[in-house]
Amino acid sequence: MSAVLSFPIQDEIISYNPATGEEFGRVANTSAEDVKAAVEKSRQAFEKWKETSFKQRAKFVMKAREVILDELDEIARLISDESGKPIAESLSMEIAPVLDLMQYFARNAAKILKPEKINIGLYATLGRTSKIIYKPLGTVGIIPAWNYPFSIPLGEVVMSLMAGNAVILKPSELTPFIGLKIGEIFEKVNLPTDVLQVVTGDGRTGAALVDSGIEKIMFTGSVATGKRIAESAAKHLTSVVLELGGKDPMIVFADANLELAAQGAIWGAFCNSGQSCSSVERLYVEEFIAEDFTKLIVEKTKRLNQDSGDKETTDVAAMSSERQIKIVEDHVESFRREGAKILTGGKRNENFRGAFYEPTVISNATNEMRGMREETFGPTLPIVTFKTEEEAIRLANDSDFGLTASVWTKDLSKGKRVAEKILAGTVCVNEVLYTHGIGQTPWGGFKQSGYGRTHGKYGLLELVAPQHIHVNHFLLTPNAWWMPYSSNAVETFRGFAKHFASGSLRQTAKLMPQLLKRIKELRSK
Ligand code: NDP
Fold first, then answer.
1. Residue of higher predicted confidence among 255 and 10
2. For residue 75, what are the domain limits?
3. How confident is the model at residue 2 (pLDDT cuts 50, 70, 90)?
């Protein structure tokens, strides 16, 4: 059985329902010593798990999918209650995409990680072959944020398991019960003991996991914590994937379908109360449509239904925590101070006791304002105007972040041209935010948005070590580059540089007489 760890409670953490502020439950704050014990168990579990076939691993993953489908509404409600988000988004943005990811990697991991013959060019004429095989790493530590507390860690768990690794998951202290649910799902399908362990706790538990010398850390969170983790992991040469913050731009040209672009901007900025790393946090609109487009956005924003996440008709629900709402208040205040105009929202929603902030549209923003530079991670949509394509690209790239971006225009060649000039891990044309939901495509950022990739082939390759197997099939003579060296050897090596290294067979043929002389010399020694 996979373990949902029940460590002796030295300290507990309390999870709250952010919509009501009421206690949701308590879990262990796992100590560094207990993390060490979990790592020990994980290493033992890995020894057997790495020997399983892709087919065996896929069976567990597909069975886990069935458990999720059986408990669909219960899980959706758990996600909504502990993280605050609307039930609609628990289903559409967490459960549905991760179910798709699960079937994709269960069915395709073997194909992606198939041993691969390498073309070694002229070395093949020497009777050599090379191939790459992919080996699991060992223990993968997954440290996710609280904003997509089900889909992000579960996706990484599945990919790690399919690659043959053992996993330790440390969920955010704001959403530990959702993390424990992931452990429970695999427990129900009888995943072998300790192949997946869930250690609840706060940042200290995460720090202990990073400092435990495991083979890989998959981290999702803030830039500041990401840097701390990279530093600490470096002590053990543990490799790290860092999925960090974003300040994602959306560029709307005058020739866009403005109705669709407005709906896209609203969903991109306000879904999950703006707490998505790929939220639209900067909206750039071509100047001569800006007034009409802004009006459209404001009208639509005012029609959004803000209510608690458990109701099916809720569009925008609570934020995840008081801490997060304070950052939003602070950014909106600084927009006001710096001369931007709050067109709607701009305050807490006092109709609720919990952490509700009204969807907020801001005009007259500029790239110099603090709220345009730091990640807000809340339901705010600041609007800036531009005159030319070049200016739009410059404004979009004028950021420390580079996670995703979007370009809206009916002219697809312009859309693609602009997309390729934007420095971000994913750029969409006439689409926004949702590509984390496509498990087949790589996910990750440029600049301060982190490094490494999750999802797709490149994500899976983060979870394995490529091993090169090189075979010499030609066992008759010593290699020309072996010792002893001589003038004859040096002349041959000159020939290697001039002819063999050209990659051309015809050029290399010129080397043959000298090569034969050298081999004769070696065989006579
Ligand atoms: P944090 O950096 O505060 O925390 C992220 C995770 O790290 C949590 O599980 C946290 O635990 C843990 N942690 C905290 N301190 C340490 C430490 N010293 N060592 C190891 N682990 C630690 O981020 P948030 O949870 O506030 O998440 C919001 C951020 O995540 C935003 O910047 C957002 O953009 C980013 N994000 C990026 C995504 C991407 O794909 N690029 C996707 C989703 C979010 P605990 O919560 O218990 O303190």
1. 255
2. 3-244+457-466
3. very low
Q: How far is CA 228 from the centre of its chain?
A: 18
Match 């959706």 to its residue by tokens.
Answer: 76
Write down the H helix ranges in 425-486.
Answer: 456-461
Q: Which distant-in-sequence residues (6+ apart) come within 8 Å of 262 by Cβ?
A: 293, 296, 297, 300
User: From the candidates 243, 281, 375, 462, which is the catalytic residue?
Assistant: 243
Q: Which residues pair with 248 in a beta bridge?
A: 280
* Residue 136: alpha-carbon gap to chain centroid: 19
Q: Does 13 sit in the ligand 1 pocket, CB within 6 Å?
A: no
What secondary structure does DSSP assign to 27-51, as a single string? Answer: EE---HHHHHHHHHHHHHHHHHHTT
pLDDT, residue 38, reads 98
The pTM of the full predicted model, rounded to 2 decimals, is 0.96
Q: Is 377 in the pocket of ligand 1 (CB under 6 A)?
A: yes
- 428 catalytic residue (yes or no): no
Confidence of residue 154 (pLDDT cuts 50, 70, 90): very high
Half-sphere exposure of 29 (CA within 13 A, CB side): 12
Answer whether residue 43 is part of any domain.
Answer: yes
Question: Which helix (H) or strand (E) segment is 281 a member of?
Answer: strand 280-286
Residue 182 sits in a domain whose CATH number is 3.40.605.10
Tally of structural domains, the chain: 3
Question: Do 235 and 280 fall into the same domain?
Answer: no
The values of phi and psi at residue 213, to 5°, are 80, 20
The end-to-end CA distance of the chain, in Å, is 62
243 belongs to the catalytic site: yes
Is 135 in the same domain as 238? yes
Residue 7 backbone zone (phi > 0: left; psi -120 to 50: alpha; other: beta): beta
